[in-house]
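[User] I wish I could look at a protein chain and see how it folds. I have put the entry right below:
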Amino acid sequence: MDPYAALRYREFNIFLLVRFAMVFAWSMQFIVIEWQVYSLTKDPLSLGIIGLMEVIPAVGMALFAGHIVDQREKRNLLVTCIAGFSVISLGLFLLSWPGLQDTWNFRTILYSIYALVFMGGLVRSFLGPTIFSLIALIVPKKIYPNAATWSSSTWQLASVLGPALAGFSISWIGVHWSMCVIFGFSLMALLFLLQIPKKPILNPKIGEPVFQSLRDGLRFVFGNKAIFGALTLDMIAVLFGGAVALLPVYAQDILHVGSEGFGILRAAPAVGASITMLGSTKFPLHKNAGKKLLIAVFAFGACIIVFGLSELFWLSVIALFLSGAVDGVSMIIRQTILQLKTPDNMRGRVASVNSMFVGSSNELGAFESGLTAKLMGTVTAVVFGGCMTLLTAGATAIASPTFRKLDLQKDIDEHEKD
């Protein structure tokens, strides 16, 4: 297959610019918030609460968001999501204003940050399913795997640059003006998106009762062994391997590398994942996908253990880099499974379940890491998470031979015939 097939469509290129700007802004914002909150509290549990504040609305609204996405026009719905994120970014910019910090006590500022993060979780419950559904309306089915790879690669590239710039910008211009940069990128995403015209609604069941719609979505996901297996495996791995939530603790108190070192640590996994994803455009991962996914998750757990035990900055960076590289394999395979095996009229609901399983497990993993760090210490908590990831991959490989033998080549051949 042509490795640049999806890039030959103008609207898809605009979509990639929108996704880059949004992911860049969102990932940079999360890092700046983490730094600001830990600087205010010096409590690792407060980092976990950030994740909890986002995951509660993201999970609570996910299925209903998926139903709405399947019923509505996708471009305008994404415009609404980005506009909502822009309002939240503006609020965080105002909360970090030095004059406000001189007049408000730190608890008022902290709780206000948590409130805006909670609102961001509501936005995110709609954002993921809308983006997933919009891709299918921009490119033909036969190049879904290639489009999924480029979309995931763009996501990872933004995830590299966002955290890296966040760490440096905190050092160079401070938290307040870093928030201003984030707001600017959200507006940029909005301007790019307006260049994409509205898209048709492909769902033949417009007006379907919401609970019937939700039941159909859940029944499809739980009945499809490939989708359910990939989501479950990734969810547990991310839940227990969420060491990145504790990076402010490592940067400030264990490795003593400051905000610039924090930016490098935070960007290292995404650099590794980006290299994997760009390589996958030349060397696809769809053959023996199940076996490759299991190996990738096992290797991810091993990298997290090395990072947790390391007291050397360079070794920590390498461990995080490798964890990102193998996590990139996992992400590509999961996205390819979802794109190939999901009907057009159910994309919003399936993507919502995906966000509940995998996307929200990042925040639950952050809460788990913060809580276990509070109870058993930071290093022990990270090592424990890595060990649980190893056990999960091993148990899945033994208990599910069907998933272990999963191969996506047949699905790709069928789409190319369409």
